[in-house]
Amino acid sequence: MTGNPASHAVRQAENSPVFRVLARLGYAVNGLLHVLIGIIALTVALGSGGGESADQTGALGQLAANPAGRALLWVIVVGLVALGLWQVVAGFQVRNSDPKKAWGKRASEFGKAVAYLAVGATALTFALGGSKSSSDSSQSASATALAAPGGVFAIVVVGLVVAGIGVFFVFRGVTRRFTKDLSLPSGPVGTAVVVVGAAGYIAKGIALAVVGVLFIVAAVTFDPAKATGMDGALKALAALPFGTVILIAVGVGLIAYGAYLGARARWGRL
């Protein structure tokens, strides 16, 4: 396998300095989006939101509202597409003596690639002057699935997977295992990155877990309107007792996660 043209192309891509810089740019722009989502969440918590969705589409919509932001959207598209392709390359480069572990790692890398490319495609839509709502997309997909044979089961599985990813994020934040992805400097800077990374992973995990629960609720109640993605999850948190405090904490945590991604753009291991 190591001698075939496909493997050679993958190795060349992985060793390309330009490709590496663009992949790091992907982490940076993803961090910017999370900072904007966190800010929107704070405005929702404080009752001063302007109707923006507290998710990637809301953040992209804010950028598209002004000329400078629209130019930045093209940078976001390039960065996220490059990062998505980098994850594809990383998936093909996985090596493990245990085939099950190897395929599990490949699935993880390819899953990240799909997520980055999907957000990159959404950013492209906004950059071209269009718009879309992730909440509407989630509801439409859920309605279609619920109408199909076995749709309820499929939505429950999706909800469990998303909730499981959320729990995994919280676990990585609490145990600080995300530091394996970094080559941090010693001293206060390294300590600060670890602190914001832990807070960010926990906040992102809580939001994703709520998204998963909402998908399960949509399936159980046969109500696709409840499957509203990140925006619906954060607004659901606001409706809880002490929801304002919880949503402020999550909003600050998402901003911290964005800051961590900025640090990963600088010190991340590729």
UniProtKB/TrEMBL annotation:
Q: Does the keyword Transmembrane helix apply?
A: yes
Keyword list (alphabetical) reads: Membrane, Transmembrane, Transmembrane helix
> What positions does the domain DUF1206 occupy?
25-92, 110-176, 199-268
Q: Which residues cross the membrane?
A: 27-51, 71-92, 113-131, 151-171, 192-218, 238-260
Q: What is this protein called?
A: DUF1206 domain-containing protein
Q: What is the lineage of its organism?
A: Bacteria, Bacillati, Actinomycetota, Actinomycetes, Micrococcales
